[in-house]
Predict the structure.
Amino acid sequence: MGNQITINSKNTHDITANALKIIAMIAMFADHFFLVALPHESVIGAISRITGRIVAPTLCFFIAEGYHYTSNVKKYIFRLLLFAIISHFPYVMYRQLPWWKATSVFWGLALGLIALTAVKSDKLDTWKKILVVGVCCLLAYPADWNYITVLWIVCFGVFRGQFKEQMTAMLVIGYFFIAIPSLLNWDWAHFYQFAIALAIPLLALYKGRQGKNSKTLKWGFYIFYPAHLILLFLLLRLFFKM
């Protein structure tokens, strides 16, 4: 997501941003299918969610990368907000939730980008930057992955170019706010949240190459999210009688 400049790399073992996003989309589709197709509290249901833990960190990482490369951050924010609106009803329909109770990850991604923009601004004092990040975290609470996406995007952006620091921040935030609370509550069905660490070896392969510059791919990454939710909603109603 976002506009990036292709960077030539001599490393033949790297992986492009486009390839990583495609991997994330496949993992997202499988994760969202298993979420409603398998018993949530079962062992197999918990195991099936493991690979899906790479998705949110990967999305947040590339939102922060997109901020660095975009030529117009306002348009970037608008694009995310637009798809937050477009994705809202497919998300609540798929999750069988009241329309006012929750919303999709796009809302959190948009707020994360807003927070990162504020943090990187030369026009805001430190306390104003903290205030903006705090407000964005509060507003992101109804979203899938809630304020975690805001904090991840800010940390990925602040520590850009320092991979070890980026991944450490990602693990600290994810484990402290999600995984460890599940452990303390003996909520074994959510232990799969520790698998966010699986995103690290994948992101380590990214060396700055965008891949093929294609508008179809660019917009496809956005359109995929609401489209796959609608498809899953229809499939699950047809075969699992949701």
In short: Residues 3-11 have pLDDT under 50 and may be disordered. The chain has ten helices and no strands.
